[in-house]
């Protein structure tokens, strides 16, 4: 799989830390116990900005910087897709989205 159009936006289940320069409407975000502003997630773990009908980002043009830096088809992307397939689309660990060193 090498295109977002054929993926259920599994990267959009990762924790996305909102950066000060991001302009994300407040109703899409929440704060962690430690005070970080992050994209809020729904009951199944997907970012609330996901358009569930199309499984695409509904704020793509203004998405957070962290999302813009995610490397499509990179090793992390492929690992997430494999986990998603192997675990039957539910229950993948929700981990902090980190930039490559
Ligand atoms: S803002 Fe958009 S690209 Fe980023 S996690 Fe949410 S739905 Fe995905």
Give a brief rundown of this model.
The protein is of the alpha+beta class and 101 residues long. The chain is 17% helix and 10% strand.
Spell out the blueprint of helices and strands.
Blueprint: E1 29-31, E2 37-39, E3 50-51, E4 56-57, H1 65-69, H2 75-86
Antiparallel strand pairs: 1-2, 3-4
The chain binds iron/sulfur cluster.
Strand order of the largest sheet: 1-2
Unique bound compounds:
iron/sulfur cluster
Class from helix and strand fractions:
alpha+beta
How much β-strand is present in the residues? 5-15%
**Residues in helix, %:** 10-25%
Oligomeric description of these chains? single chain
What count of helical segments does DSSP give? Answer: 2
**Strand segment tally:** 4
Major sheet? 2 strands, antiparallel
Q: Which outline best applies?
A: globular
Terminal Cα separation, in Å? 25 Å
Low-confidence stretches: none
What Rg do the Cα atoms give? 13 Å
Number of domains: 1
- Please tell me the overall pLDDT: 84
Order of helices and strands: EEEEHH
